[in-house]
């Protein structure tokens, strides 16, 4: 009976010793949360850095460099200042007839790059237009040999002013020899957002409006604008 406790004690010691030896021989299990990854070599770190740099660097769009156009000897050259300062003259819209052109249609585009244009909105029975016409006809006579083109846009106020024969008689009365476009339906008038008779525009060699005169007056300023535009034309065309 006394051997049983001794045997139990010996058995317990053997069990403890066996468990201890088993735990020492078993490989350690890594903790997936707390275990640190093995240190990388310098070459591995450099390779990772290069990969990260190339994949995260934003692509830069290659935009064309803005070029500032300068006045050249070609008649179609337009400076940036003109495109930002002046408004491009609108083309004639559905004219109802042409006078002093031998029946041929004309456009502003045909003069662009070649001539300075004075565009005159008028109607023949308007007293304000009558007072302005002597200046317009004198500019035409004075500067036509220097490259000036004058074009009248006849936009009628009254029904009888729509009649081509009446307009033709008015051209003879006022000594108008330059071309006149009939604008009976106000198509060109509206394209210019016009509201007045007379209304005079100076259009330079590139087709931009460099001077805008509403109503009577401003004759000296308008002529100065014509001279400036003709001077630019002469420089551009080498004359």
**Any idea what the shape is?**
rod-shaped
Overall pLDDT, averaged? 79
Distance between the termini: 141 Å
Q: From the alpha-carbon coordinates, what is the Rg to the nearest angstrom?
A: 45 Å
Q: Major sheet: order of its strands?
A: 1-7-6-3-4-5-2
Number of strands: 7
- Give the oligomeric state: single chain
- Helical stretch count? 7
Helix-strand makeup class: alpha/beta
Biggest β-sheet strands, sense, barrel: 7 strands, mixed
Unreliable spans are: 22-79
- Strand portion: 5-15%
Please provide the ordered H/E string of secondary-structure elements: HHHEEEHEHEHEEH
Helix content range: 40-55%
Folded structure, characterized:
The model is unreliable at 22-79 (pLDDT under 50). This protein is an alpha/beta fold and 239 residues long. The chain has seven helices and seven strands, in the order H-H-H-E-E-E-H-E-H-E-H-E-E-H. The chain has helices at residues 3-25, 42-56, 80-85, 127-143, 164-174, 187-191, 219-237; strands spanning 87-88, 97-99, 116-122, 148-154, 180-182, 199-203, 208-214. It is 40% helix and 14% strand.
Short recap of the structure:
This protein has 239 residues and is of the alpha/beta class. Helices cover 40% and strands 14% of the residues.
Q: Which terms summarize this structure?
A:
40% helix; seven-stranded mixed beta sheet; 7 helices; alpha/beta; 7 strands; 239 residues
Topology:
Layout: H1 3-25, H2 42-56, H3 80-85, E1 87-88, E2 97-99, E3 116-122, H4 127-143, E4 148-154, H5 164-174, E5 180-182, H6 187-191, E6 199-203, E7 208-214, H7 219-237
């Amino acid at each position: 009976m006394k051997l049983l406790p001794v045997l139990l004690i010996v058995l317990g010691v053997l069990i403890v010793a066996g468990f201890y030896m088993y735990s020492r021989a078993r490989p350690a299990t890594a903790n997936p949360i707390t275990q640190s990854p093995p240190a990388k070599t310098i070459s591995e770190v450099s390779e990772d850095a290069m990969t990260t740099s190339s994949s995260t660097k934003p692509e830069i769009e290659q935009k064309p460099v803005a070029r500032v156009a300068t006045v050249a000897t070609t008649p179609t050259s337009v400076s940036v200042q003109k495109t930002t300062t002046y408004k491009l003259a609108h083309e004639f819209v559905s004219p109802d007839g042409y006078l002093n052109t031998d029946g041929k249609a004309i456009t502003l585009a045909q003069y662009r790059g070649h001539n300075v244009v004075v565009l005159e909105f008028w109607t023949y029975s308007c007293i304000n237009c009558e007072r302005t016409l002597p200046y317009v006809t004198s500019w035409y006579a004075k500067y036509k040999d220097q490259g000036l083109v004058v074009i009248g846009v006849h936009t009628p106020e009254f029904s009888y002013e729509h009649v081509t024969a009446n307009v033709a008689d008015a051209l003879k009365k006022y000594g108008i020899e330059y071309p006149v476009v009939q604008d009976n339906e106000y198509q060109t008038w509206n394209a210019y957002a016009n509201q007045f008779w007379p209304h005079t525009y100076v259009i330079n060699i590139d087709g931009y409006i460099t001077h805008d005169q509403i109503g009577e007056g401003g004759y000296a300023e308008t002529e100065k604008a014509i001279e400036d535009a003709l001077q630019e034309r002469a420089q551009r065309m080498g004359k």
